[in-house]
């Protein structure tokens, strides 16, 4: 095994002290990708270009928060030196003029853009070729399928995902890695294909909580705010959520077990119920109405190249939705956000399932977003931690949800929880 | 057939005339192109003109015989949006020669409603402050305002009946007012932003321009892909909140005079005019605006800063982006939260009126093309996410247009447009009824 097993934070420390060279790290990741091509996590990879970037970082000799760290970029995010194809034949071979802001910020911090990871069609539901790295008969989840699979498979330490419903948290949980969807508004969306302006959130997939803090500093151009080493025990709201009955038995058992374990370890754990309960319906309305309009060009000009599921499902549903129903959903979502803000006076984090269960068998569906979409609508930061395996031997996650614009607190609480998962 | 050149017609008249067989889309496009050929050397509204393609689309539309919401109506698109088969520069030298692969939603939706995209209109650099070459069509020594400079000038100069802009502070309402046309900024988020180059995500709002309120209503339906319901003239005169602040004392005499006169005329036409005062939560709006713009601006412009920094204007680099480097995440979050508090307070307060009547700009357009004028009368409403409509209402000392602005409750956009319809008529009617007392 080589440097590909390191977290971004570990790699940065070694590169900074000369114990590891950036090009060695990139080569080790590329070797792993070559050995594990069956995962099909990458839609674009140019090994020579990746190594050249690493060489350039070494030659420049500038310090950087991410110096020499390879990063995977979901293929709905623009890169000036690589195609950006949005998981759609409509954009086959598309070459953007400029980087997305997150890509430029990564490069500015010394990061290496390793390649583009597979996305479902337009970060939606129509799956593409990526398989689960632990069992190729199962989906890795989506829409950030390639990012989750590549990080889980040690092909890259960190990768960008996006989330409109559950597209970062769910695949991360399925693949057994950390997924982080920040508070809405924390990261720039310049250069990310716009699907829903009220929902789309740039997310991170990685294997270490420290990497979340590191990437946050890079993307926000702020000093690194390290996670507390030994944070106080958090006040935890155990939120089974309105979809609890849909969770698999192993997921339910994991959540109950985790709640009990965290209480035994010293956290205040109390059950919470969200009101109102129909937020999934509101999220669906916002999703459909906005996607139908932001994808107007694709819908009007290239309908034959859209998957029937997207075209005749979400997009035509959105075209038919009355404006009043959309506006009502927007206003209900705002009430929901205030409800969440009130709730977080009593709790530091909520504990809730990351997904319905393990990654489902088959590659035809990337799974269900019902344990994510509500939080995306609520604009609150979410983080999934790997927390065991299910009946099929695949990973299960637990999800922690924090107050809007208090992502640092969420990370501190996650550190405390992670140390006690056993 | 109407007895004027087709480029003088409103969008509604164009659609009606084409449907009646009195006019062809080709004749409309040709007439607009003639007008542009005549006036563009002075006005310089266009970054790119797709004349041949537009004529071909018009002929195709004529052959199809279809009846559509914007059937055969030419429109202009601010060069901050992408359109397929056209270059996009976002008002920056950096993007010279870039041809994006797809239409922004602001191009695709009007096209899907039968509209014909004539070309891209001049924007200031990234819809910020560094101006393009566009002049005010009423007097080329004066700015047309910005950042949607070309869209406002093109509509005002009868080059095109409809055009699209964006507003982050005052970039739709102010140029529309300076050019003497109708500008509409919807409630935040109601027009899709897909394919628009982002300026400040918490504020950016797609808007539209026309020469009548009725055309705004038509265009709005196309921009949102919603069924068109013609606005209904209110039967009872509205209750209008006359809002002089903030910065009333800083407005030049003609700005204040036109607003007071408009209020008097509307009162003469039957409107109830009451004083509207902004809630105290709105007091910090200028600082909030600066903080949101600068914090997001630094991060949003990182692609250009990293590879093309020398090609950014010093204005953008040394003011906004430079301030962005000094701001902390905590300051940004505090500004976001303060803006949200202001929105809630203003939404509650706005329930007392059918619309707020206020300044759309300080006064008439300033002299010179180096500066597009102040957005200090717009930023607050953009931040409040409220729908805004500007209407021409008078003139200033240089015989340039001066407008008034109506502001509605958030998400009550259709009602604001109906208030606009009444106000448009009320200003004319009131002018006959009201005589200044000396």
- Biggest sheet strand line-up of chain A: 1-3-2-4-6-5-10-11-9-7-8
Largest sheet of chain B: 11 strands, mixed
> Count of DSSP helices of chain A?
14
Cα(first) to Cα(last) distance of chain A is 25 Å
- Name the overall outline of chain A: globular
Classify the secondary structure makeup of chain A into a structural class: alpha/beta
Please bin the fraction of helical residues of chain A: 25-40%
- Run of helices and strands of chain B: HHEHEHEHEHEEHEHEHHHHEHEEH
Helix and strand succession of chain A? HHEHEHEHEHEEHEHEHHHHEHEEH
- Report strand order across the widest sheet of chain B: 1-3-2-4-6-5-10-11-9-7-8
What percentage of amino acids of chain B are in beta strands? 5-15%
DSSP E strands of chain A, number:
11
Topology:
The complex is a heterodimer of chains A (422) and B (438).
Chain A: H1 8-16, H2 22-35, E1 42-45, H3 47-60, E2 70-74, H4 101-108, E3 112-117, H5 145-152, E4 158-163, H6 169-175, E5 178-181, E6 201-206, H7 209-220, E7 235-238, H8 249-264, E8 268-271, H9 279-294, H10 296-301, H11 308-320, H12 323-343, E9 349-353, H13 373-378, E10 382-389, E11 395-401, H14 407-418
Parallel strand pairs in A: 2-3, 2-4, 7-8, 7-9
Antiparallel strand pairs in A: 1-3, 4-6, 5-6, 5-10, 9-11, 10-11
Helix pairs in contact in A: 2-3, 4-7, 5-6, 9-11, 9-12
Chain B: H1 11-19, H2 25-43, E1 46-49, H3 51-64, E2 74-78, H4 105-112, E3 116-121, H5 149-156, E4 162-167, H6 173-179, E5 182-185, E6 205-210, H7 213-224, E7 239-242, H8 253-268, E8 272-275, H9 285-300, H10 302-308, H11 314-326, H12 329-349, E9 355-358, H13 379-383, E10 388-395, E11 401-407, H14 413-433
Parallel strand pairs in B: 2-3, 2-4, 7-8, 7-9
Antiparallel strand pairs in B: 1-3, 4-6, 5-6, 5-10, 9-11, 10-11
Give a concise summary.
The complex is a heterodimer of chains A (422) and B (438). By secondary structure, chain A is an alpha/beta fold. In chain A, 38% of the residues lie in helices and 14% in strands.
């Amino acid at each position: 095994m080589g440097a590909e097993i390191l977290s971004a934070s570990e790699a940065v420390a070694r590169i900074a002290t000369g114990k590891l060279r950036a090009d060695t790290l990139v080569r080790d990741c590329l070797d792993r990708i070559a050995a594990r091509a069956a995962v099909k996590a990458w839609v674009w990879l140019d090994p020579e270009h990746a190594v050249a970037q690493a060489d350039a970082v070494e030659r420049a000799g500038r310090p950087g928060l991410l110096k020499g760290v390879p990063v995977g970029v979901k293929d709905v995010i623009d890169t000036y030196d690589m195609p950006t194809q949005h998981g759609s034949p409509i954009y086959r071979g598309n070459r953007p003029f400029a980087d997305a802001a997150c890509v430029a910020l990564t490069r500015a911090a010394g990061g290496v853009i390793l390649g583009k990871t597979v996305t479902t069609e337009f970060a939606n539901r129509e799956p593409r070729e990526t398989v689960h790295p632990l069992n190729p008969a199962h989906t890795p989840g989506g829409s950030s399928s390639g990012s989750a699979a590549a990080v889980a498979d040690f092909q890259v330490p960190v990768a960008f995902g996006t989330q409109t419903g559950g597209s970062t948290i769910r695949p991360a949980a399925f693949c057994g890695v950390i997924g982080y969807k920040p508070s809405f508004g924390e990261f720039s969306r310049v250069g990310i294909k716009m699907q829903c302006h009220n929902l789309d959130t740039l997310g991170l997939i990685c294997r270490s909580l420290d990497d979340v803090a590191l990437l946050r500093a890079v993307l926000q151009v702020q000093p690194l705010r390290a996670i507390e080493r030994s944070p106080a025990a958090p006040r935890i709201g155990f939120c089974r959520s309105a979809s609890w009955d849909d969770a698999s038995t192993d997921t339910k058992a994991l959540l109950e077990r985790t709640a009990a374990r965290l209480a035994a370890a010293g956290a205040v754990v109390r059950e919470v119920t969200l009101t109102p309960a129909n937020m999934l319906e509101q999220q669906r309305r916002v999703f459909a109405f906005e996607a139908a309009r932001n994808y107007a060009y694709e819908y009007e000009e290239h309908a034959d190249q859209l998957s029937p599921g997207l075209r005749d499902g979400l997009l035509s549903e959105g075209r038919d939705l009355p404006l009043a129903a959309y506006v009502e959903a927007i206003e209900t979502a705002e009430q929901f956000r205030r409800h969440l803000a009130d709730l977080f006076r009593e709790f530091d984090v909520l504990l809730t399932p990351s997904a319905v269960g393990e990654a489902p068998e088959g590659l035809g569906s990337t799974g269900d977003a019902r344990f994510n979409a509500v939080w995306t609508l609520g604009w609150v930061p979410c983080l999934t931690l790997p927390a065991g395996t299910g009946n099929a031997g695949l990973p299960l996650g637990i999800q922690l949800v924090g107050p809007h614009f208090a992502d640092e607190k969420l990370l501190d609480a996650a550190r405390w929880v992670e140390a006690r998962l056993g | 057939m109407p007895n004027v050149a087709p480029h003088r017609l409103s969008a509604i008249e164009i659609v009606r005339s084409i449907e009646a067989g009195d006019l062809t889309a080709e004749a409309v496009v040709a007439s607009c192109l003639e007008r542009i050929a005549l006036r563009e050397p002075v006005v310089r509204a266009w970054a790119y003109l797709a004349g041949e393609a537009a004529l071909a689309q018009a002929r195709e539309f004529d052959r199809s015989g279809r009846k559509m919401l914007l059937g055969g109506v030419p429109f202009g698109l601010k060069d901050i949006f992408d359109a397929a088969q056209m270059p996009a520069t976002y008002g920056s030298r950096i993007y010279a020669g870039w041809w994006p692969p797809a239409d922004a939603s602001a191009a695709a939706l009007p096209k899907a409603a039968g509209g014909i995209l004539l070309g891209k209109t001049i924007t200031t650099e990234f819809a910020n402050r560094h101006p393009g070459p566009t002049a005010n069509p009423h007097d080329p020594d004066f700015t047309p305002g910005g950042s949607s400079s070309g869209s406002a000038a093109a509509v005002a100069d009868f080059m095109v009946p409809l055009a699209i802009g964006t507003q982050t502070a005052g970039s739709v309402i102010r140029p529309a007012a300076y050019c003497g046309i109708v500008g509409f900024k919807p409630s935040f988020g109601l027009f899709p932003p897909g394919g628009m180059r982002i300026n400040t995500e918490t504020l950016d709002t797609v808007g539209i321009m026309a020469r009548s309120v009725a055309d705004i209503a038509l265009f709005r339906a196309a921009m949102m892909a919603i069924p068109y319901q013609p606005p209904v003239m209110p039967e009872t005169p509205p209750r209008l909140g006359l809002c002089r602040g903030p910065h009333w004392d800083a407005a030049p005499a003609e700005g204040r005079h036109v607003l007071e006169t408009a209020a008097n005329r509307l009162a003469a036409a039957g409107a109830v005019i009451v004083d509207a005062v902004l809630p105290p939560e709105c007091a910090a709006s200028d600082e909030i605006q600066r903080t949101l713009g600068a914090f997001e601006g630094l991060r949003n412009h990182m692609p250009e800063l990293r590879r093309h920094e020398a090609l950014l204007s010093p204005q953008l680099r040394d003011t906004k982006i430079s301030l962005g480097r000094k701001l902390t995440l905590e300051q940004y979050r505090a500004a976001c939260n303060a803006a949200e508090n202001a929105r809630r307070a203003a939404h509650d307060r706005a329930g007392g009126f059918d619309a707020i009547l206020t300044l759309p700009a300080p006064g008439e357009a300033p002299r010179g093309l180096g500066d597009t004028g102040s957005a200090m009368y717009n930023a607050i409403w953009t931040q409040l996410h409220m729908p805004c409509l500007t209407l021409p209402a008078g003139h200033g000392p240089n015989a340039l247009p001066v407008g008034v602005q109506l502001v509605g409750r958030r998400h009550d956009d259709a009602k604001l447009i109906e208030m606009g319809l009444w106000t448009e008529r009320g200003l004319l009617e009131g002018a006959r009824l009201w005589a200044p007392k000396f």
